[in-house]
Design brief:
- The complex is a heterodimer of chains A (56) and B (250).
- Chain A has 56 residues and is an all-alpha fold.
- Chain A is rod-shaped and about 65 Å long.
- The longest helix of chain A has 40 residues.
- Chain A is built from two helices and no strands.
- Chain B is an all-alpha fold and 250 residues long.
- Helices cover 77% and strands 0% of the residues of chain B.
- In chain B, helix 4 packs antiparallel against helix 5 and helix 4 packs antiparallel against helix 8.
- The radius of gyration of chain B is 20 Å and the shape is globular.
- The chains are: A mainly alpha (56), B mainly alpha (250).
- Chains A and B meet through helix 2 of A and helix 2, helix 3, helix 4, helix 8 and helix 9 of B.
């Protein structure tokens, strides 16, 4: 392992801003997108349920 | 004959809906597992690069994201055109579901590229062939999404989208070969089928693990979005009404 301490890991050899700026945005997008898709799916499912109520 | 029937079984939205419902948890698990393995390898096993220091660790998301941005575009264009030519509804729905994920990875490739370019080239952005063609890819995704959402007639929107996606597909080989065709600041292909890898094995393995994670992620989120689109579009179909009844506990 190449890191002596947590602060060394966080600093990324002086490139912390660039490395964590990349990974942070990647995490945000790749958590956010599935949540949005799940929201759309649940909304569609509940609308199917509503149309059933109207029909029967 | 029986074989062709089996092949097209999952082209029925109802079958697709059922199958992807079963697959989704496994795809999410695969994505999470490989991402954890890839990040561990990328941050704790792969050594610091001799010339770029630790800034190079951006590669573990930058290259897989850039690959996915191109692969997903070709998949989107392929399904859109197939849905148009074969009048296959599900294919058109899959094409629409692919677009936001492709756009997200394109943005991520540009974003991580900017954050990598600053410390290594001294610039967030340059109007270089690779970067410019990747930016055009982002506009193609956004244009496709805007176009299909702006036309009310769903099938006509699908067809218009297919035409746009098909024409835009020319851009993908341009992105891929841009580093060879033009003199660019961007480095050449990371992985070559004909040459030995230029990077350390641990670096390469971390990148490949992340690539598998991104593939599984893409399948999962695209399937989830396709399921939503299927429910939105097939609201009148009996099997969708049955799902509604079951959801009501009726």
């Amino acid at each position: 392992m190449s890191w002596g301490s947590f602060s060394e890991f966080f600093a990324m050899g002086g490139y912390g801003l660039y490395v964590w700026g990349s990974y942070g945005v990647a995490l945000l997008l790749m958590v956010g997108e599935p949540l949005l898709a799940r929201h759309r799916f649940r909304k569609a499912l509940s609308q199917v349920g509503q149309s059933v109520e109207q029909d029967y | 004959m029986s074989r062709s029937i089996r092949l097209f079984t999952f082209a029925a939205p109802s079958r697709f809906y059922w199958l992807t419902g079963k697959l989704l948890p496994w795809l999410w698990a695969t994505a999470a597992l490989f991402a954890v393995a890839g990040l561990y390898m990328g941050f704790f096993v792969a050594p610091t690069d001799a010339t770029q220091g630790d800034a190079y660790r951006i590669i573990f998301i930058h290259v897989p994201a850039a690959w996915m941005s191109m692969v997903l575009y070709l998949a989107m264009a392929g399904w859109a055109v197939f849905g148009w030519a074969a009048n296959a509804r599900l294919a058109s729905m899959v094409a629409r579901a692919l677009a936001p994920t492709g756009a997200m990875f394109t943005f991520l490739a540009l974003w991580t590229g900017a954050l990598w370019g600053k410390p290594t080239w001294g610039a967030w952005w340059v109007w270089d062939a690779r970067l410019t063609s990747e930016l055009i890819l982002l506009f193609l995704y956004l244009g496709y999404m805007a176009l299909v959402e702006s036309i009310d007639d769903v099938r006509r929107a699908d067809h218009a989208g297919a035409l746009l996606a098909l024409i835009g597909a020319i851009n993908v080989p341009v992105i891929y070969f841009s580093v060879r065709w033009w003199n660019t600041l961007h480095q050449g292909a990371t992985i070559s089928m004909t040459a030995a890898p230029k990077m350390a094995a641990t670096m390469l393995n971390a990148m490949l693990l992340m690539t598998i994670a991104f593939w599984a992620y893409s399948f999962a989120v695209v399937f989830l979005r396709t399921r939503a689109i299927v429910l939105e579009r097939e609201r009148q179909a009996q099997w969708v009404l049955d799902i509604g009844l079951r959801a009501k506990g009726g």
